[in-house]
Amino acid sequence: SPYYAGLVARAYRMAIDDWYKDPENWSAEEYMKELATIPNRGYTLAFHDGRLTNYAHGYDSNTNVSDWEYAGQIVEVEDDAFVMSVKNRMLPGDVIEIVPPRSRQTIFIRMYEFIDAKTGKVGEAVHANTQPFIRLPFSLFEQEDPEFLKREVLPMTIVRKEKALSEDEWQRLKLDQEGHKIEMGNGNEERYDAKRDALQTALDDRQKERSFRTPRVGTKGCCGRGCNGCLIFWHDESYAKAREILAKRKQGEMLEKDGKTIAAE
Fold first, then answer.
1. CATH code, residues 68-162
2. How many CB atoms lie within 10 A of CB 89?
3. Cα angle 170-171-175, degrees, rounded to a multiple of 5
4. Smaller CB count within 10 Å for the chain: N or C?
């Protein structure tokens, strides 16, 4: 995605430039913080130092997680405003961060309303499924130098925003960070074990909250439309009338009504 490509290229550009300036004091940590804003499954040394360690892969959760997400791109720079294409829903109070490709200085702004770039209409939310464009007047950036904005914020500049996470996702981030610290020689195994337990507890709690729309077993679990392999429909007496009707249909044609409704008619 443009979000991934833009932020990774920027981080690598900074890392390479800094190494050439001062290779003796170079550290990767600054750039790792930048890469952490991209959804990931945890950064590790992998095979860099030989065999994988138990910190190199998370077996409890393997989804991509970050507390930042793609907000959009600057598509045009006007005399007094940016025009931004929105890629994820934005709500009042959202903090967005404009990430200039050449500058280390990023620009934060908390949004309370959104100006439609085409109509000028002001709204309280932006929904990405409409592929909207919003206008960000320079007057919103009262702490910034307008000349800096025009010089460094170019078309295709990435904009990111804070992302709400579930409890298990927050615990995953903490576990990934501790695992990375251990690989770099700065972590603590006891803290890692405690954070892994906290993640597992959060995952268990989340699983308890999930349920299917219908039960998987028992007569309540049958949709009553004659699905292939449904033992309930094809053998339970309550669906006898539905089976008779279905037998008169063309091959592969299912019932419009469920068998329970037919039985009640």
1. 2.40.30.10
2. 14
3. 120
4. C
